[in-house]
């Protein structure tokens, strides 16, 4: 069990964080955050970037706390995960469009997952474009976007409500939710992928 | 504009596109879209998310079709688009239209695509047809960018009884954005399929899944 702790408000503009995670066959790693990530502009102009690269033969549970995209943030988060045939992954991401009463800056969150070299899920979510944030095609005016990915060889049935869905995906399930607050988004993700 | 692209974008092309509303029927059922003024942001958002993804893959498929790519490349393109289309309802809708497109045309290049996958995704089928006819990636990308809004726009007229002239004016207003999307796609036409952009359309995915659940219980006009 490893907790990821930021020493102060982070990431700031100009920050570049790269985290390489390797979990061998038979090993289990739980990565968790202790507080929300707050994406803020730095003292000097410039984007911030977090890259997490996962090489997975064992089991990884990576459940960071929500990321709050503040007004002048310009943040990119990339998660790349390469799974072997028998690896298992549990991951979630919650993005919050600004602090209370605040419009979000920019955030691009990219996800790329392969199993045994085959593409499983590739997606990039852009936050902070007024038109896309408001459009029913994009974030439908919701303040919180949540994604949960469970790849453990299970086959949960498809389920959903007006603003969430769980769909089967290559030996697991993807849960997607749009909500007005973090508590509601987290409740959907937790219920949808218990464990 | 290449004539193959004109054929594919024509509403009289028998590819089965008329059966799909691109999430609009579910948005209407929920009251998210009920007039021309809220149809505009729906269409703009759709063009810049699902439309952009479709344009990227149509451009890449046209690039592949022009150089008569092999079965393995078509399989790779198809798998990469699948990975960018997590909603099963969206996958089914795209493959139904891709299959419909292939059935309505014939060309040796398309036999290779059909051998790779008999029900290819729609943007890949469109790109393959354009490329096989020696059209450019730009033609294919622009075609699917246009179709990303023309289908839902026509569905809105039928579902809400909106003024067809006012709705067409909305489509026309998006023409510069269609070109921006197509130009972006063209820049990626020769990119390794694994590295192609993957713009998400979270709202459309959720609308598509909800539409699918509802259509099992109640009568819907459109398949998606």
What can you tell me about this protein's structure?
The complex is a heterodimer of chains A (195) and B (224). Chain A is mainly beta. Chain A has helices spanning 130-134, 182-192, and strands spanning 2-4, 16-23, 28-33, 37-39, 48-56, 59-63, 67-69, 74-83, 88-97, 106-115, 118-127, 144-151, 159-161, 164-168, 172-179. Chain A has one domain. Chain A is globular. The relative contact order of chain A is 0.14. Chain B has one domain: Orthogonal Bundle (Urease accessory protein UreF). The mean pLDDT of chain B is 96. Chain B has helices at residues 3-9, 24-29, 36-48, 50-66, 71-83, 88-103, 108-116, 122-132, 137-160, 164-173, 175-187, 202-215. Chains A and B meet through strand 10, strand 11, helix 1, strand 14 and strand 15 of A and helix 3, helix 5 and helix 12 of B.
